[in-house]
């Protein structure tokens, strides 16, 4: 593989993925296509923007003419689709952009890949397509799809289109489904960076309900190595789950963050629960371990400590975000509740 197209590369996981791929594959060039929504931040890739193996074009994966032009500039061997609307709470406020990008965008992107005969496609999806678990059990690749939020429903619809394109047209796609990521460059609307930056600013931490919902945490670098393995070794038409084998309730996570930051538990504020809030996510990633030779490497203790250090060292990055468009959303989301 010589040229890889990454969509959504200015977001959290996409930017970490591009950095990992450039560092690990000296002969590889990357074309990053990103619409630069509120979540797309070119600062996330400031350190590589002058790399001769990196190119960027701003545009929408639902815009066929843009994709045809950008992907015809030279031969592209594979596409990894990270581009998405990714925040559950925003999908509850307005699901329109989720359907446009996560469903229509995926379909248009696949149509252009078919037209240009691009030989490999990875759809980066989420464990949320499986719905919610009770206290026991794990999501496997065979767990029935049962999304509960507009976000997860839109990701599921995208996945089903990928599945159908493989079945109908032999489209050379694999789907990856990962649990909750954390790490550097995560937008501070997701719980870990939000709570770190609120605590550092002396603001309260809005825990939804009792904080008993469980998430399975994985460091973004482990997820990116999984996407890399699926791209290089995954079998077309297959789904691969990735998870960190690290289940925590939100209140346990919140207390751990406050302890590591040296901040008091009095900052915890229990607020109205998220509507339709999924109780528990937990992943069985044994298929990826078996077939792709992948496994998560970064312990939660090490990963959380390095993530906190990263946010401590990138106050300006957080400030640029919190002083802009995000501030308006935060007021709308939490204004009446803090
Ligand atoms: P993010 O919100 O940080 O980044 C999304 C990126 O996509 C942004 O750069 C944005 O500008 C871009 N984008 C949005 N709409 C676009 C469009 N129409 N055309 C082109 N670009 C567009 O998201 P993330 O957390 O990095 O997630 C990346 C992918 O991984 C998503 O598909 C998400 O569903 C999936 N995922 C995320 C997690 C997680 O914990 N964050 C876990 C599993 C799977
Ligand atoms: O302020 C908050 N308070 C709170 O209690 C926020 C933002 C979240 N929460 C809770 C809700 C969830 O139980 O924390 C948990 C994690 O919430 P998010 O960080 O919003 O993540 P989640 O809804 O679990 O979805 C994430 O993981 C799967 C990503 O945002 C998705 O893109 C990914 O697919």
Automatic annotation (TrEMBL):
InterPro entries: dTDP_Gluc_deHydtase, NAD(P)-bd_dom, NAD(P)-bd_dom_sf. The keyword NAD applies. Its cofactor is NAD(+). Residues 6-306 form the NAD(P)-binding domain. GO terms for biological process: nucleotide-sugar metabolic process. It is an enzyme of class 4 (lyase). It holds the Pfam family GDP_Man_Dehyd. Keywords: Lyase, NAD. It catalyses: dTDP-alpha-D-glucose = dTDP-4-dehydro-6-deoxy-alpha-D-glucose + H2O. Its EC number is 4.2.1.46. It comes from the Bacteria. GO terms for molecular function: dTDP-glucose 4,6-dehydratase activity. The keyword Signal does not apply. Belongs to the NAD(P)-dependent epimerase/dehydratase family. dTDP-glucose dehydratase subfamily. This is dTDP-glucose 4,6-dehydratase. It comes from Caulifigura coniformis. The lineage of its organism: Bacteria, Pseudomonadati, Planctomycetota, Planctomycetia, Planctomycetales.
């Amino acid at each position: 593989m010589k040229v890889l197209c990454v969509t959504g590369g200015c977001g959290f996981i996409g930017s970490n993925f591009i950095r990992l791929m450039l560092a690990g594959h000296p002969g590889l060039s990357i074309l990053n296509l990103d619409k630069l929504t509120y979540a797309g931040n070119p600062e996330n890739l400031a350190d590589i923007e002058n790399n001769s193996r990196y190119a960027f074009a701003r545009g929408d994966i639902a815009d066929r003419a843009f994709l045809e032009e950008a992907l015809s500039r030279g031969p592209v061997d594979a596409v990894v689709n990270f581009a998405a609307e990714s925040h559950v709470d925003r999908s509850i406020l307005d699901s329109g952009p989720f359907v446009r990008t996560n469903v229509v965008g995926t379909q248009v992107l696949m149509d252009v890949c078919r037209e240009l005969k691009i030989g490999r496609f990875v759809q980066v999806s989420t464990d949320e397509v499986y719905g919610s678990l009770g206290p026991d059990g794990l999501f496997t690749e065979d767990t029935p799809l049962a999304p509960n939020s507009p976000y997860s429903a839109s990701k599921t619809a995208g996945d089903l289109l990928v599945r159908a394109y493989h079945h109908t047209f032999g489209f050379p796609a694999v789907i990856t489904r990962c649990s909750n990521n954390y790490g550097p460059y995560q937008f501070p609307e997701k719980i870990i960076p939000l709570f770190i930056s609120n605590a550092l600013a002396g603001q309260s931490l809005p825990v939804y309900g009792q904080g008993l919902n469980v998430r399975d945490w994985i460091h973004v670098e482990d997820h990116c190595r999984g996407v890399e393995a699926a791209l290089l070794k995954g079998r077309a038409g297959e789904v691969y789950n990735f998870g960190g084998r690290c289940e925590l309730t939100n209140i346990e996570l919140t207390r751990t963050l406050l302890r590591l930051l040296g901040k008091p538990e009095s900052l915890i504020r229990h607020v109205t629960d998220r509507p339709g809030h999924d109780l528990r996510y937990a992943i069985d990633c044994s298929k990826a371990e078996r077939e792709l030779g992948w496994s998560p490497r970064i312990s939660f203790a090490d990963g959380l400590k390095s993530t906190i250090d990263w946010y401590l060292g990138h106050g300006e990055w957080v400030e640029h975000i919190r002083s802009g468009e995000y501030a308006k959303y935060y007021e709308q989301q939490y204004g009446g509740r803090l």
